[in-house]
Design a protein that fits this description.
The complex is a heterotetramer of chains A (about 230), B (about 650), C (about 200) and D (about 350).
Chain A lengths: L1 H24 L1 E3 L2 E3 L13 H28 L14 H26 L3 H27 L9 H33 L4 H34 L1
Antiparallel strand pairs in A: 1-2
Helix pairs in contact in A: 2-5, 2-6, 3-4, 3-6, 4-5, 5-6
Chain B lengths: L16 H11 L4 H6 L4 H30 L9 H35 L8 H23 L24 H29 L12 H32 L13 H34 L7 H14 L15 H13 L1 H16 L7 H24 L1 H7 L3 H31 L5 H27 L16 H31 L47 E3 L7 E5 L6 E6 L6 H18 L2 H5 L1 H12 L3 H10 L4
Chain D lengths: L1 H23 L12 H34 L12 H4 L3 H33 L7 E8 L2 E6 L8 E4 L1 E5 L4 E7 L4 E3 L8 E3 L5 E5 L5 E6 L12 E7 L1 H12 L8 H12 L29 E2 L4 E2 L2 H9 L1 H4 L12 H12 L3
Parallel strand pairs in D: 1-5, 4-10
Antiparallel strand pairs in D: 1-2, 2-3, 5-8, 6-7, 9-10, 11-12
Helix pairs in contact in D: 1-2, 2-4, 6-9, 7-9
Classes of the chains: A mainly alpha (about 230), B mainly alpha (about 650), C mainly alpha (about 200), D alpha+beta (about 350).
Chain lengths: ~230, ~650, ~200, ~350
């Protein structure tokens, strides 16, 4: 969490500086408001795609929240939980959680490099992020095997598989995005807006990581503590 | 548009003819069939969206006529249960998923940029993709229906009836996938609208100067984002139960049929407000223009819209009062369901005040808006009755509810929508619709509507349940069913007249000019039909009704590129100029991606593996879509200026 | 633009043609043509549903004498198969062959072992005439049409039917994966002595 | 002006037509003709709601009417007035505010009324209540009358008899999909949901026959899933119940005897049960006293020999989709079968 808040802090201060500068860049001459001097791209809330990403995150958080709600709804209707299996093994899931949290760091560096328009650094850290997320996907396969229940075994199995599946879909899509962006950063064509994409890709990764924490808790501890 | 090579030219104020020409060339969609398929201009997409939605409206209405034909007399053998169940399922599904929600988004895709003084919606390619997905989803459903795979478990598809055991075959699978199609499209449009309203408003259009229709669409878009995922989740679980044997809804394995109802209505009730709130937006746009004054109580109206948006999530359970629920919960949902009447009341009173203190211009759009006061108010009041748990136990799932929901949805959305078409048709086509046909259309619709649906209140009270394909002769229901069928026929005629009016006016209508009604919002300050770029020079806004305001400086924005696509973004709250962004060009890839996605959704009805294998072409198409063309990059590099 | 829209139609028409088999799969036929009672059906009336079939009837000898015209229609009709599934439960087939056809007192119906043949005609004969070692004759008690529905369902138990026709999971305790999820067994006949096995 | 006035005229006309229709047909399952305390409470609440809502509706229409009548006319070319020209408009504000306050108060009143009705419904005493287990099937109702001693329990289908003036507790279950139990003259709906059990408490005060039907869409024959509730004076009810406990009449009349043989040796016996015979399947309605019932197949037909014959010959012509197969019995066998069923008084 600390990483996030600090980045948020530094960003917003940087943002204020930038906005101050834009005000000077707009000139009013009689009937005209001349915007020719405005920047052609901006980071964070100045970029359309940032808001778009926020929208997607809102949608997907709602899906996760509703799935978790369904999990508890189903749990409240049966006596024993898991119904007729043992809770999933902690090993791989926990390992993946730790790795995911750790991945926030290279991800944060990629974001910073993007906002500094530093192509070399971006290439480096994007590659790191890509490799790391490939590792997650590998471990995720093992996670599915360690659930100790089939999706068509009972309602518990169905909802657990759904939760893990939903999050895996996000892992896959973001891995793909990172891959494409990474390649693009090496091959070009590159323009300023691509660095905005890098920063937003990182933002989305934050979401994938932080949304995993409650899902992990439900999948791996719901069966033990409830 | 290879602006990379030539130097950047920027617009001046007032815009020169050269500016206008260059802008037209820059923002126009490419010619030819290929160009048509790769169009991204929000007006082109918006028009297709509106036409498609009306196509489905007519189709759904036709199905309704067939049902009324079957119910016109008791023990009618015209249509059997198998077909009838498909008919009412298709009717409900069409009207809710393929007409009511999309048509509102369609209209706003066309209008919102014009109303907020922007060159385009945000993410124009996404916009095209959303339209294609919607179109293909709808076509899939109707192809299925023609092939006797029409869903037949009701538009609400309650499990277990819609589950694998009691709905064999693929009918319900196609229903579930249609939901996926339309919700995907709807969610994308919601994000597009929110970002458009947040970032693309003309300079000076602060939050308290946003037109009320745009406010309505903004609230709707937020509701869509939080409600639609619920039904997507529900239908995904349903199709998995049916295809891969999961047990979400199987009581034998710890699942629960009521889970479906919670998830479905958590979406299903807010959905009524996705349909209703844009209708309120139409009202608030039309009433001021035709009473020659600004809306009364702008702030109250906005707050009421937002309050409705929040309350709408607090009353889904009132669709489930007949299931076993704890008493306490029931009382809460009763209260919530009744209190949501208050924001609507606030708006109705404000409109009356506006009319009361205005100078009235009686044109067809105003007629449709006035009908709202009769029909919607009646529907709202029966809604208050349904909100009461005990009373609902009697009238729930009877024709009383059929009457109520049609009074709310047709009175609250369709009448204002028709008014809106008469109101904005000249803006879209440059020609006015015929007033004479308009009045015929209105009175037939109004009388036919009350004839069709008012008797249903009494049918419900006399115990006629919904979704019956026939009824015995000795129940005392025959007369009113006959009346209802006649009314339905009148509605059909009036819609025919409307279509005639639209088609004829397109060619021979009276020329409109930029502002035929003397409207006050920005869309009336540009040509009809608007040029490809909407505004040669982006206006600077100084009030809620810029066209009516006395001229204040600065009037327009200068310095945006005219020979390559560039839009002005502004800050979210105060709409101060923020950046000038290069904007996406037309491309075929949204269509290709939509086709691939369609393949994935339809394929997954037959084998889960489609999700894996067809995902590859989808990913490929979307990557090609994202991958920058070198000339576009050059263009934006030429405009580039770091923050 | 509407004229342009028309260009898309051939594509959809083609798609529609591809889907035509769907009509067969989705047909709901409620009243089957009920043929006039055949002389054959009269002597088959029995006092109790639980009389064992006559042992002479073997796998190979499908009694064509009073064997109604074999009806494969239901092999592609999801509704009929699901009706068969309901009858399998209603007529207590499940009490000997187990829900899902895993087999219990009676032989399993979901594996590749077929004592009396796996063709629809064989299965029809097994249900109608009954078989030695406990399989009663149902000719008098189950209408021909319903027997064909049962036949289609029984074949779905071992994955003999197209996956889009075979039933999905039922709303009960689910022993094993739904019929639609089963791989096709390669039926191999078995010498009759194994009929009494398990 | 024009709009609202003509509307009122239209509504009035429509209303009168409808009332005429309503008066002519005696309401078989009307919400507005309660026959017991529960339904009566609901009817009272309805009256309150109708009164308040009609008042509000008229008030709004009058307000709109006056607005249209008093506001001056203009045309689109006329310049629109701006807020600064319109001034503060205190009058408008006052009336809007008071209208909002008034509607809020009315809503609160209705909420209270509704909650009180809920309480009243819960207050029905269960002193020596009659317990009936109702199980819904596609597309018929199965009823089991409970009793302290198992021997006194009995089954019937599609027609309930209940004693007047005595509370009845219905235990509701479903064998397949969701159905909804609804007899408007006695009480509101209650869903029957597979995997769940719910209860409904009602009471009939006046003797009479009250029709109800399934109120949740449940498939092909949702339309034809009616049930009749006969409320009878207690003595008459007890007589009926005792008769139901008796096993089936064994008629010596040869035609009936032959019909009985046919019943036991053909498809009938696979689904139906007749107490006191080998027929014990529970897939279709219990036929022990079928001849006493007023209707066949959950309200599909009046119970006459001709209808019974038509029904057995091909149920799918009368109730398409019902789970009873057509019969290929020779006509004389069929007549014998009908004779037998007719003997099951």
């Amino acid at each position: 969490m600390s990483t996030l808040s600090t980045t948020g802090g530094t960003q917003s201060s940087a943002m204020q500086r930038r906005e101050a500068s834009t005000r000077e860049r707009v000139q009013v001459r009689g009937a005209t408001l001349d915007v020719a001097e405005l920047p052609s791209f901006g980071f964070s809330h100045r970029s359309l795609m940032w808001w778009g990403t926020l929208g997607l995150m809102a949608i997907e958080s709602t899906v996760f929240a509703l799935t978790v709600a369904s999990y508890f709804f189903l749990r409240s209707h049966v006596a024993v939980w898991p119904m007729n299996s043992v809770p999933p093994e902690l090993r791989w899931g926990t390992l993946n959680t730790v790795l995911l949290l750790a991945s926030l760091w290279p991800n944060h560096l990629a974001k910073r490099a993007g906002e500094a328009l530093d192509r070399r650094k971006v290439q480096l850290w994007l590659t790191v992020c890509l490799l790391v997320s490939l590792v997650f996907l590998g471990i995720r396969v093992l996670e599915f095997q360690s659930l100790n229940v089939r999706w068509d075994g009972d309602a518990y199995g169905s909802v657990v598989w759904l939760l893990l599946g939903l999050h895996t879909v996000h892992l896959i899509t973001d891995t793909w995005d990172t891959g494409v962006l990474c390649v693009l950063m090496f091959t070009g064509p590159v323009e300023g807006r691509r660095f905005v994409d890098v920063s937003e890709n990182a933002l989305y990764w934050y979401f994938v990581v932080w949304s995993w924490v409650p899902i992990y808790a439900v999948i791996y501890w719901g069966g033990r503590l409830l | 548009m290879n602006a990379g090579s030539e130097a950047v030219r920027r617009n001046s104020v007032p815009p020169t003819a050269a500016d206008a020409q260059a802008l037209e060339a820059t923002w126009r969609d490419p010619p030819g069939a290929m160009g048509w398929l790769s169009a991204v201009n929000h007006k082109a997409i918006g028009k297709r969206f509106i036409l498609t939605a009306f196509g489905f409206f007519v189709a759904g209405g036709f199905l309704a006529l067939l049902m009324r034909l079957q119910l016109a007399r008791p023990e009618n053998k015209l249509i059997g249960p198998d077909l009838y169940n498909q008919l009412f399922t298709m009717h409900g599904t069409t009207m809710m998923f393929l007409f009511a929600v999309p048509v509102m988004q369609a209209v706003s895709v066309y209008l919102v940029p014009l109303m907020i003084g922007s060159r385009s919606v945000a993410f124009p390619r996404m916009n095209a993709f959303a339209y294609w997905i919607y179109l293909f989803g709808g076509l899939m459903l109707y192809v299925a229906f023609v092939l006797n795979i029409g869903p037949d478990a009701g538009w609400f598809s309650y499990v277990p009836l819609a589950g694998p055991e009691y709905s064999p075959g693929k009918r319900v699978d196609f229903w579930a996938q249609l939901v996926t199609f339309t919700e995907l499209s709807g969610l994308l449009e919601a994000v597009i609208l929110i970002v458009t309203v947040f970032k693309l408003r003309a300079p000076g259009m602060t939050l308290n100067r946003i037109p009320l229709f745009v406010w309505g669409m903004l609230v709707t878009a937020f509701m869509v984002i939080f409600a639609m995922p619920s039904v997507m989740l529900a239908s995904t679980a349903l199709i998995m139960d049916r295809l891969v044997g999961t047990h979400f809804y199987n009581p034998g394995e710890g699942g629960d049929a009521v889970l479906w109802q919670h998830l479905f209505w958590f979406f299903g009730h807010p959905e009524v407000y996705f349909i209703f709130i844009p209708g309120l937006g139409f009202m608030s746009s039309i009433i001021p223009t035709f009473s020659r004054r600004p809306i009364y109580g702008y702030t109250a109206m906005v707050l009421a819209l937002i309050a409705t948006g929040f309350l709408a999530f607090g009353l889904w359970v009132h669709h489930m009062f007949a299931t076993n629920l704890p008493e306490m919960g029931k009382s809460f949902f009763t209260a919530a369901s009744m209190l949501i009447a208050i924001p609507s009341a606030v708006q109705i009173f404000c409109w009356i005040a506006t009319l009361w203190t205005g100078k009235l211009v009686f044109k067809t759009p105003l007629l449709f808006v006035l009908a709202f006061f009769v029909i919607l108010v009646l529907g709202g009041l029966t809604g208050v009755m349904l909100a009461s748990v005990p009373l609902d136990l009697q009238v729930h799932d009877t024709y009383f509810v059929v009457a109520h929901l049609h009074y709310v949805l047709i009175g609250g959305a369709v009448f204002p929508l028709f008014g809106a078409i008469y109101y904005w048709y000249p803006k879209i086509t440059g020609r006015l619709m015929s007033e004479r046909l308009g009045r015929w259309n209105f009175w037939l619709f109004f009388i036919g509507f009350n004839g069709a649906f008012f008797p249903m209140h009494l049918l419900g009270l006399q115990g006629m349940p919904r979704r019956v394909y026939t009824y015995p002769g000795d129940m005392g229901w025959s007369t009113m069913n006959a009346i209802a069928s006649v009314g339905a026929l009148m509605i059909g005629v009036s819609v025919l007249i409307f279509i005639v009016n639209v088609v004829r006016s397109r060619r021979s209508g009276e020329l409109a000019g930029s502002d035929p009604w003397g409207g006050g919002t920005l869309e009336w300050s540009t040509a009809s039909p608007p040029s490809a770029c909407n505004f040669e020079a982006i206006p600077v806004v100084h009030g809620a009704y810029p066209v009516w305001e006395p001229r204040r400086e600065p009037t327009h924005v200068a310095g945006l590129a005219v020979n390559s696509r560039e839009v002005l973004t502004t800050t979210v709250l105060d709409a101060e100029p923020d950046t000038r962004m290069p904007f996406p060009t037309p491309t075929i890839w949204p269509l290709v991606s939509a086709l691939a996605t369609t393949g994935l959704f339809v394929g997954s009805v037959f084998t889960p593996w489609a999700v894996v294998w067809v995902a590859l072409p989808v990913a490929a198409a979307m990557t090609a879509w994202f991958w920058p063309k070198r000339q576009d990059t050059n263009a934006s590099v030429a405009l580039e200026r770091a923050p | 633009m509407s004229s342009r829209c028309l260009r898309l139609w051939p594509a959809f028409a083609a798609a529609a043609l591809l889907c035509l088999p769907a009509c067969e799969r989705e047909k709901r036929q409620f009243d089957s043509p009920s043929p006039p009672p055949t002389p054959a059906s009269a002597p088959m009336m029995r006092a109790t549903p639980l009389q064992p079939g006559n042992a002479q009837l073997g796998a190979s000898s499908v009694p064509t004498a009073h064997m109604p015209s074999t009806d494969y229609r239901y092999e592609n009709n999801a509704f009929a198969v699901s009706q068969g599934k309901r009858l399998y439960r209603w007529y207590n087939c499940s009490s000997c062959h187990a829900p899902g056809g895993g087999g219990d007192w009676g032989p399993a119906l979901s594996d590749d072992q077929w004592v009396y043949g796996s063709s629809p005609a064989n299965i029809f004969a097994s249900i109608a005439e009954g078989r030695p070692a406990g399989m009663p004759s149902f000719a008098a008690h189950i209408s021909e049409d319903q027997t064909w529905q049962l036949v289609a369902y029984v074949r779905s138990l071992s994955g003999q039917l197209p996956k889009d026709v075979a039933p999905g999971r039922s709303d009960t305790m689910s022993g094993r994966e739904p019929e639609a999820g089963r791989d096709r067994e390669r039926p191999k006949p078995m010498e009759k002595s194994d009929g009494n096995k398990r | 002006m024009a709009t609202s006035a003509s509307t009122l005229r239209w509504l009035a006309a429509c209303g009168s037509v409808v009332l005429a229709a309503a008066v002519r047909a005696e309401p078989l399952q009307s919400v507005l003709a309660p026959a017991g305390p529960q339904a009566a409470h609901l009817k009272d609440l309805w009256d309150v709601m109708l009164l308040v809502c009609t008042g509000v509706f008229v008030a709004v229409l009058v307000a709109v009417g006056i607005a249209l009548w008093r506001a001056p006319r203009a045309d689109s070319s006329q310049r629109a007035s701006l807020p600064q020209e319109l001034g503060p408009q205190r009058g408008a504000r006052r009336s809007v505010l008071s209208a909002v306050v008034a509607s809020t108060l009315l809503l609160l009143f209705l909420i209270v009324a509704s909650v009180f009705t809920d309480r009243a419904l819960a207050r029905l005493s269960l002193h020596d209540a009659l317990h009936i287990e109702v199980t819904a099937n596609q597309w018929w109702w199965e009823a089991r009358y409970d009793d302290a001693q198992a021997s006194r329990m009995f089954n019937t289908a599609n027609e309930l008899h209940i004693p007047t003036g005595r509370p009845v507790v219905l235990t509701l279950r479903s064998n397949d999909v969701i159905h909804s139990f609804w007899v408007p003259a006695l009480h509101g709906k209650k869903d029957l949901i597979p995997g769940r059990t719910s209860t409904l408490r009602l009471q009939a005060d006046q003797a009479g026959t009250y029709r109800g039907q399934c109120a949740e869409f449940c498939g092909y024959q949702h339309t034809t899933m009616a049930l009749l509730v006969m409320a009878e004076p207690p003595a008459q009810y007890e007589a009926w119940a005792d008769h139901q406990r008796a096993t089936a009449a064994l008629s010596q009349e040869p035609q009936a005897a032959r019909g009985r043989h046919i019943f036991m040796t053909t498809t009938c016996v696979m689904c139906h049960s007749i107490q006191g015979t080998d027929a014990s399947a529970r897939r279709g309605p219990d036929l022990t006293h079928v001849a006493q019932r007023q209707t066949l197949a959950a309200g599909a037909l009046p119970n006459t020999p001709e209808n019974l014959e038509r029904w057995i010959r091909n149920p799918q012509h009368i109730k398409p989709g019902a789970n009873m197969p057509p019969s290929d019995l020779p006509t004389d066998d069929l007549k014998a079968l009908v004779a037998y069923l007719g003997s099951l008084q």
